[in-house]
Amino acid sequence: MVKNFFNISDFSKDDILKILKFNKNIKSLQNKSIGLLFEKYSTRTRLSFAVGISSLGGNAINIRFEELNISRDESFEDTFRAMECYLDGLVYRTEDHQKLIQASRYFKKPIINALSDQSHPCQSLSDLLTLHEHFNSLEIHILWVGDMNNVCFSFVEATNLFDGLKLTICTPSLISKNKNWKLGPNISVVSEINDIDLQSVKCVMTDVFISMNDKGSDEKVALLRPYVVDSNLMSKTNSNSVFMHCLPAQIGLEVSEEVFKGSKSIVWKQAYNRMVAQKKLLQFIYQ
Ligand code: CP
Ligand code: NVA
Questions:
Q1: Quick one: which ligand is closest to 245's CA?
Q2: 3-state SS assignment for residue 206
Q3: Would you say the CB of residue 130 lies under 6 angstroms from ligand 2?
Q4: Residue 3 lies in a domain
Q5: 211 lines ligand 2 (CB under 6 A)
Q6: What CATH number is attached to the domain comprising 232?
Q7: pLDDT tens, position by position, for the chain (287 residues)?
Q8: Atom 4 of ligand 1, residue of closest alpha carbon
Q9: Does 69 fall in a domain?
Q10: Which pTM value belongs to this model?
Q11: Do 168 and 196 meet the contact criterion of CB atoms below 8 Å apart?
């Protein structure tokens, strides 16, 4: 069966543990060509896949949407059928999660979600790796502060699989009331930071207030402005706590410069691990 990776929930806990244990250096992609199809901006995901695929012996092909005939008049179906003739897999970033599902009807080889409006499973997979590397355990209390967006959704799915993880989401109730996500018993949502046992928090995560797919509004920024991760918040968390952000960051909005550049920040380790985790993911998919 074709292994697509649209969401963390496409895999079991055992699959994820197996992925994280793969040797990232086996040249398992020899003679394989993987297309990188991005409808939206990307720095980390695009480059980490491109370099990761090459270092596994594969061929990463950047596909520019505006150069495809789909930009003129070829149908979505024929575009993906054509790509299936040449490629062994696709890494696809799209503004509409449904397009991943639609693409898989015509492109019957592995498709990896490189971020959609709904989820960012590669980010959460690699964040699990970073957390495990740092704490040597996945029994950690994590605090997510800010918007309940695609990255938060994937981390919720990861937490649903790993019952040792504890996740507290701190977000305005105006945001949480519109989300009917499946939350396991180890996940809680609060709107007041003072309602959280901050001493037990070992990791504070956040992301931009306005995502690429958001319409974005001054009202939303104003609503989220109190949900900044600053030194005051970090100082109340566990003495061994870390700060994580998938990047790109809007320094001064969701995170202060002091925290972003401070000693608790492991954002560059996180960025590096995107490549490591994705190489492991590719080993798993093409094993
Ligand atoms: N974190 C992440 O996916 O970054 P890019 O948008 O730069 O790929
Ligand atoms: N939530 C952000 C993540 C970027 C990697 C976005 O979708 O723009």
A1: 1
A2: strand
A3: no
A4: no
A5: yes
A6: 3.40.50.1370
A7: 899 999 999 999 999 999 999 887 888 899 999 999 999 999 999 999 999 999 999 999 999 988 999 999 999 999 999 999 999 999 999 999 999 999 999 999 999 999 999 999 999 999 999 999 999 999 999 999 999 999 999 999 999 999 999 999 999 999 999 999 999 999 999 999 999 999 999 999 999 999 999 987 899 999 999 999 999 999 999 999 999 999 999 999 999 999 999 999 999 999 999 999 999 999 999 98
A8: 44
A9: yes
A10: 0.97
A11: yes
